[in-house]
Amino acid sequence: MVVVILLTWQILLTIFLTLAGLEDRKLAAMSGMLWGLNLLWIIGMGGLSISLRKYVAESVVHSPKRIWLKFFCFVTALALVEEAITTTMTNCAPLFGVKMGEVYITASANYFDVVLFHSVVVFLPQFAMWGWLLKRYALSPFAAFLMYGLTGFINEALFAGPNPLMLAQWILVYGLLVYLPANLFNHLPDRRRVRWWLYPAAVVLPILASIPMVMLLLLVIAPGHPSIHFPPMGAE
């Protein structure tokens, strides 16, 4: 039911932007990019996740070693795929009737710049934290989906400012990164029972885990690297 509400929210928001785009070419371009994200990642990956979840859970029954590493590699691979989709949408700006950089949904049009200096590199400590949580506690894949989705919303709010209208989108986008890989832990024995405080902790701990990486990026790896490579979308 929660997923249905989130998906309905996201589709209605995109429809609203599409209608508003009848009078504004930038909103039209943004709605086109969001439709691509909706279809290719949220609906496409969502459908695959539901179809493959039992296979993923059963794949480790006879090979339970290094589940944390399998999870980390799996979720990182999915993050790379998701960023490939979003960066492609940014590069499709001319197809949606605007110049490159007028409308965008990633910080750069360069895929490697996006994943190495803006997104996936920052998420790696968060994925490591989630692997530890899932190995230690009996968190369900759906709980992982929802909790990391909320973490993703906070990630985006810290980067670009809070926008409650985008809550459903970020829960769906980030949540699908961990949902399918979290099924690797379904049959893992001796995980601890989940207490209520673990749910808010699971939202905050990944953000805290990523702080050293953010500082490393800002001060050592790429000091002075722009947070966004395009002008503000409201600028003419």
From TrEMBL:
<keyword id="KW-1133">Transmembrane helix</keyword>
<keyword id="KW-0472">Membrane</keyword>
<feature type="transmembrane region" description="Helical">
    <location>
        <begin position="137"/>
        <end position="155"/>
    </location>
</feature>
<feature type="transmembrane region" description="Helical">
    <location>
        <begin position="32"/>
        <end position="55"/>
    </location>
</feature>
<protein>
    <submittedName>
        <fullName>Uncharacterized protein</fullName>
    </submittedName>
</protein>
<keyword id="KW-0812">Transmembrane</keyword>
<feature type="transmembrane region" description="Helical">
    <location>
        <begin position="197"/>
        <end position="222"/>
    </location>
</feature>
<feature type="transmembrane region" description="Helical">
    <location>
        <begin position="105"/>
        <end position="125"/>
    </location>
</feature>
<feature type="transmembrane region" description="Helical">
    <location>
        <begin position="67"/>
        <end position="85"/>
    </location>
</feature>
<feature type="transmembrane region" description="Helical">
    <location>
        <begin position="167"/>
        <end position="185"/>
    </location>
</feature>
